[in-house]
Structures are given as C-alpha cells and as structure tokens.
Amino acid sequence: MNRKRHIAIFTTASLPWMTGTAVNPLFRAAYLSKDGERKVTLVIPWLSLKDQELVYPNNCRFSSPTEHEAYVRQWLEERTKFRSDFTIRFYPGKFSVDKRSILAAGDISEVIPDEDSDVAILEEPEHLTWYHHGKRWKTKFCLVIGIVHTNYLEYVRREKNGVQAFLLKYMNTWVVSIYCHKVIRLSAATQDYPKSIICNVHGVNPKFLEIGKKKLEQQQNGDQAFTKAAYYIGKMVWSKGYRELLKLLHDHQKELTGLQVDLYGSGEDSSEVQEAVQKLELSVQVHPGRDHADPIFHEYKVFLNPSTTDVVCTTTAEALAMGKIVVCANHSSNDFFKQFPNCRTFDKSNDFVTVTRKALADEPAQLTDAQRHELSWEAATERFLKAAELDHPLTKNQSRSPSNNYMSTSMNLQWNIEDLSAQVHHFVSGFEASRKIFGAIPGSLQPDEEQRKELGLVVPAGN
Q: Looking at residue 167, what is its pLDDT?
C-alpha cells in the first residue's frame, strides 16, 4: 500500500516539434512528478534522421535518444525553473506525410516493464491505438486514461469529406472503448465518447504568467502596458483560424477602418494567406512564426482568434496569461476561457466588429491571483488528478468483482463483447494489407532495423 503509483504518459509528438501533444504531456509529466508522491515516465516517439528532417524545425537534429532527451529536459527546465524528477523513454515512431503526424511502429506498450504497468495516460488515445498491435492496454495496465486533444472529425470534414469523417468517428469510438477505462475530453469541441468527461487538464507555460505579472505591475504603476493593437499567431494553415479571420476582416473592412492587425505564423498555406491579405484594404501584415513568449508580442493588447477547430487553444490561454484581451468565437472550444474577464466572445459576423472595437478601446482587466492559478499547470494537475480519480487505490481488473449476480451477468456480457472486439482489432491490425487499407504506414507493424539499433531494441525471435 505504501508503494508509489507509477504513471506512464504516452504521447504522439516531441520537442522540438512545437505541437500541443509535444508540449502539454511534457508539462504534465513535470508537474505530476513535482511533489514526489508518484513515479512518472514520459514515453515519446524517436524518429530516425530522415523523419527528423521532415518534422523538426531550424535544422534541429539528434544523433541519439540521449541527445534528444537532453534537449527536452533543458527546454523544460528553462521554463519551469525547477529540475524534474521523471523518466523519459522512447518508442519507435515514423512520420506520416499525408497525415502530418507521427505514428508508432510496433507495440509501444512494451516500453514500460510489466512490473511498472500501473497507470497509463494515452495523450490522443485514438491516434495511439488506431494501428496498435500488441498487448491490450487494459490488460497490461490497472488504469488507462485517454486524454482527447484533437478534433480529428472537424479536420477530416474540412480537408476531405463527410463519408471519411463518418467512418473515422466510429473507428475512434471503437478503439478508445477497447483500450481506455476513462476518457477525458479537453472540451466539448471533441468527438463525444461513451462515459467520457469534459475537463481542461492543460495549463499554461509558466513564462507566460511571468509576463502577465510584469504587465500587471505596469498597469498598477499607471504606465501604458500595451502599445500595439491586434495580432494573431498560429501555424499558417487555413484550418487554424486564418480562413475565418481573413473573411471577417474582408467582410467588415469599412467598419474596421484604421484597424492594424499583425499575423504571425509559418506553414503550408503561407503563400495563399499572403495573397489573401494583399486584397484587403485594412493594414494587415504577415510575419514568420515566432515563439509566443518573444518580447515582440508583449506590447499587443488584443489577440484575435476566431478559430473553431481547436479543442482548447493554447495560444488563447497564453494570451490571457499575459494579460491581454482575447476576442474569440462563442464556441465550445472556448468554454473554459469564458470565466476570465478578458475573454470577449462573439456569435455572429457583425458581433465581431462590435466586440473588437470595444476590446481596442478598453484596458485589459487585471487578473487576480485566483485567475492566474486557474491558468497554471498546478491547477491543471489538480483538475487531472480529480478527473482521473487517481487517489483511489487500484488493482488490476478490480472492476471484475460486481456486487450482485445481475450485475455480474450484465458486466460479464459487456466484457465478453469488449474482449471479442479487442481480439478482432488485434487480428485486423496484424496484417500488412489491412493496415494499409486503414492508413497505417507501410512496414510499421514492427520497428525497422535502423530504429532497433538506435533504440537498442531486441530483434524478435525468428527474424
């Protein structure tokens, strides 16, 4: 009973790729391990050099997992200002160009030894289990918690078609129900899952809260804290809010005369965004992507973000932490932010003009200590522990002891159906032909020889 809980966090990306599933699980590992009450292992993908060149920016490359780990730990310590006591392990991953995602190669649950298989957190559980072929997660771990980050259905609807979105919805429901005991959805903007709960278990990089404190001091001293008008930052692809924002600016150019907006981002649609901006009469400038904590952003007062594809937008949380006013859509993805006085939402196109004008005329409200805490990773960790019910002692398959015969019969039937479903998935995911049909990377049933060598993995018997 005195044995520490062991939490293994599996995620789909890693720094230096600055995506949500690289950054947020890293902070989660740091803050779950901070008080020393539990053992934490962060499991992240290792990419061979050819894939690193496709994914990691600024020619950042790693010759070994040890070098990669050192980079991740240094980045984290510079932002949290404390040394984290958690383990980092790597699983073999491959980059899918068409999905713009990293997918696992082989059975990644093997990264955690059986004796440590207590709690597993699957960051993006559908993504991690679409092509999983190996030990069943619920069998290996006492508790498996899925945290749903991404609104995959919305992306597919926008980029492909409704039929594929329909099929994906049922595929996601299938694999998540097979492999997860609990599902936490960051907001109602995600796909609904049976027995899931909605809770934002993400926090803000501490450096944004520090910037906000400095802005608060300027306001309290009577200084002008914000000298620039409005901006937006995000990966420069149409689905990340640029389409909505430029349409709003185009449709209301006359009402917004004199407005200056700066757009910051890099991405596949950069040239098209540039072309669209040149057709506007408003003063809109496009700049390359930067770190949102860069001093260039400190002086902006208003963050414009009409995107409805995010689940919980990280840059919106960062802007609020820095003390800015945020103008965003009245959408379920922004429900968590509505508790903050500097969050201004709009419903219709005309409302955007009214809300934006008022935001530019107002001074941002000064955040209280309680509001800053709500944005922090300390609060996010508290919310996670409560939502996951990790304070309750667990034993493997403990739920297989129902209190009466009726429940026993009913639950056994449910388990039998689920077990059969899991066996079907295991069977289908074990053939190269069927994996290709469902979009797996060819040759990803097992790690390739190069990755085995890089990660020091044992070659399976018979190979």
A: 79
Residue 221 phi, psi dihedral angles, 5° rounding:
-85, 0
364 neighbors 226 (Cβ within 8 angstroms): yes
> What is the distance of C-alpha 345 from the center of its chain?
23
87-96 vs 101-104, strand pairing mode: antiparallel
Assess contact for 105 and 444: CB atoms under 8 A: yes
Q: What is the pLDDT of residue 444?
A: 87
**Residue 412: predicted pLDDT:** 59
Give the three-state DSSP class for 304. strand
User: For position 88, what pLDDT does the model report?
Assistant: 98
Q: What is the pTM of this model?
A: 0.89
Per-residue pLDDT at 43: 98
Residues 6+ apart with CB under 8 A from 198: 184, 185, 186, 187, 188
Q: 106 with 452: CB under 8 angstroms?
A: no
Torsion from C-alpha of 91, 81, 117, 62, nearest 10 degrees: 10
CB within 8 Å of 242: residues ≥ 6 apart: 232, 234, 236, 263, 265, 269, 273
400 — pLDDT class (breaks 50, 70, 90): very low
Q: What is the pLDDT of residue 157?
A: 67
Distance, CA of 23 to chain centre? 8
pLDDT per position as a tens digit, 214-226: 999 999 998 999 9
Greatest distance between any 2 Cα atoms in the chain: 74
Residue with tokens 């903007």: 189
- Which structural domains are found in the chain, ordered by start? 6-202+385-455 (no CATH), 206-375 (3.40.50.2000)
Mean pLDDT of the chain: 89
Residue 384 φ then ψ, to 5°: -65, -50
- Let me know the angle formed at the C-alpha of 301 by 15 and 363, rounded to the nearest 5 degrees: 140
Model confidence at 415, in pLDDT bands (50, 70, 90)?
low
SS3 104: strand
Listed range (142-156, 325-339, 389-403, 439-453) with the worst mean pLDDT = 389-403
The Cα–Cα gap between 128 and 108 comes to 9
Q: At what angle do helices 314-321 and 20-33 cross, to 10 degrees?
A: 60
Q: Is the peptide bond before 341 cis (omega within 30 degrees of 0)?
A: no
- Gyration radius from the chain CA atoms: 23
